[in-house]
Each structure stands twice: as C-alpha cells, then as structure tokens.
Amino acid sequence: MCALLTAGSLLLNLGVVRRLREHESVLSEIRMRPPATPVLAIEPGESPTPFEAVDVDGRELTNRTIAFSRVTFFTADCQACEKALPEFLARPAADGEQTIAVVVGPEPATADQVERLRDRARVVREDFGGPVSTAFGVRGFPVTVLLDEDGRAATDLGGSDAAARNALVS
To answer: Can you tell which superkingdom this protein's organism belongs to (predicted)?
Structure first.
C-alpha cells in the first residue's frame, strides 16, 4: 500500500513539474513581446461616425467635409500635448490636405492652445465628450488620425506625429 502511494505521489509531482516548465516557457514568450501600442482613436480602415461641429471661425465641420485630412486632438494641461504642439505647428500640409486641430476641454483652459493653432489649422474647440472626439473614438491625447480621400482612417499615429512609429506615413 505504501509503495502505491509513493508511486502515485511521484507521478503527481512529475506532472506538476512538467506543467510548471510549460508555464515558464509561455511567460518567457510574453515577456519578450514588445508592449502593445494603445489604440487612442479609430483604427485604420474605420470612418468617424456622423457628426456636426462648428470651428472657432464659425464654419461648419462634418464627417462629410473632412476627407483627406490630418485631424489632431489636443487637450489642456497635457504635457504630451505641449510637446507635440511645436511639431504640429511646424509640419506643412500635404497638397490638398486639410489640417484640423480639435482642442478638447473647457474654454478658459484651452484658449491658449486655440490661439496658437488658429493660424496653422482649422480649429474646433469642444468639451470632453464633444461630437468630434466622440466620432473619432478618442481615448487619449494627443492623437493624430489621417483620413484618406474616402474619409476613412489611413493610420492612427498616436501621441504626436510619430512617423518613426509608422512607416506608412511620410
């Protein structure tokens, strides 16, 4: 009887050791993977949902009027947004491309950003949960979405204009 219990215990321990080795190799693979890039807005191939907004100059902006655009979302009190702003202001628009900046947050806090962006882009100021950021599914700032001629996201650049992260965009 004792020999039977010992043999059973040995088999159980061998099974446990085998499973631990399997788990170790799986964990090792997970640790070696690069971290996933968070999705901050609509993904490539998706279109913004229908929306209507008015820019700071009183012109209407809708999902039907923004094809072939670079749409960048900023917010006040965001260090990453402040770092991305000079790059955004220095980047020339491609031929025919609209440059749209959406500044999200309460009006007094966003006034400085709106004024700095106004000469370089078509600017929309909206509160959190506003129509443009909702249509684009914005979940973080800053984020840039390029729209193709059909109004679909060509790529999501996340953060600033991080061309190094995305070889598809020049």
So the answer is: Bacteria
- What residue segments make up the domains of the chain, in order of their start? 1-33, 52-165
The fold adopted by the segment(s) 52-165 is Glutaredoxin (3.40.30)
For the ranges 15-24, 56-65, 67-76, which has the lowest average pLDDT? 15-24
CA distance linking residue 141 with residue 63, whole number of Å: 20
- Rounded-to-integer distance, Cα 71 and Cα 93, Å: 11
> How far are the Cα atoms of 44, 75, 135 from residue 168, in angstroms, in the given order?
11, 26, 24
Both tokens of 134, joined, read: 């909702």
